[in-house]
Amino acid sequence: MNIGNVSEQSGLPAKTIRYYEDIGLVQPSRRENGYRDFAVQDLHKLAFLGRARSLGFSIDECRTLLSLYEDRERSSADVKAIAQSHLARVDQKIEELQALSATLRDLVVRCHGDDRPDCPIMDDLTRSDVRRRENIPLEQPSEHW
Amino acid sequence: MNIGNVSEQSGLPAKTIRYYEDIGLVQPSRRENGYRDFAVQDLHKLAFLGRARSLGFSIDECRTLLSLYEDRERSSADVKAIAQSHLARVDQKIEELQALSATLRDLVVRCHGDDRPDCPIMDDLTRSDVRRRENIPLEQPSEHW
DNA sequence: TCTTGACCTTCCAGTAGGTGGAAGCCCTAT
DNA sequence: ATAGGGCTTCCACCTACTGGAAGGTCAAGA
């Protein structure tokens, strides 16, 4: 099966599939002309990956899930542990964003938003005390959401 | 003022401050020995940036906010518009994560998590229909949370 | 005066998870 | 024979930094 075909059936862009090969998630064979030749199992794996990614699992988690996926003897406890820790992170992120949302909403509501320059949002950003930030965790850009 | 001093007072790592200079957010002068020499205004700008970033504004939004910060004639409407669109994105993200959380929680609850291999989580990831994904937006990795 | 250590500099690479584009084969249909 | 679409590799770019190496600078203490 050519990459275009697999792309269409799995819903993943061809670029992404090549990238997944690069990082070792799939190992399609090659034809004589150099074209990748995907087996049906590869298609299943890619579709599995697409679903796991759409649930927000990281590539590393996907790697583990994939090995569990291919292990017929794996225990459901192993899978559950991964899903649980992912769920905990999602819920944590939700809480952080909700605190952020509340702060922003408060600022937006208090800003009259007209032609005059005075603005509570700017005042807040300019303020050098720390009252506002007491309950707001820092963004962790390294999390790459 | 040396970078270490500014770092301590603004709460931003020195590396980050150098990076902010690289991308043109601050322009400290230089001493004869090559050391950066920050003015008090630079410190204010960096503290402002730190607060805006902690509220989740992107670097590009910070750039705009900074120009508004330095414009005493700016209208509060301009600031409000940026904050509002940011708030909308935050709320959108919260909704997505909540849908995700609900799905994951359901899967986790249904998985008995013992030594046996059968696992609803795996079943869901393996399933090739689209029922589950109907209400779940795709992760947008380009958003870089 | 010498040395130690803290502080500063630049530059390069890496992070996660891809995406965009260029240059160039390959294959099929007309 | 040629046009097109599909396939290949490779390199660069995105966000917002962070880590580390190699080396210059400065102030304090022996």
Automatic annotation (TrEMBL), chains A, B:
Extract the coiled-coil ranges from the record. 80-107
Q: Name one GO cellular component term.
A: cytoplasm
The record's principal subcellular location, in a coarse class, is cytoplasm
Which biological process annotations from GO are given for this protein?
positive regulation of DNA-templated transcription
GO molecular-function terms, A-Z: copper ion binding; DNA binding; DNA-binding transcription factor activity
Q: Which CDD domains match?
A: HTH_CueR
Kindly list the places in or outside the cell where this protein is found, as annotated in its UniProt entry. Answer: Cytoplasm
Q: Which UniProt keywords are listed?
A: Coiled coil, Cytoplasm, DNA-binding, Plasmid, Transcription, Transcription regulation
**Full protein name:** Cu(I)-responsive transcriptional regulator
Q: Whose protein is this, by species? A: Tritonibacter mobilis F1926
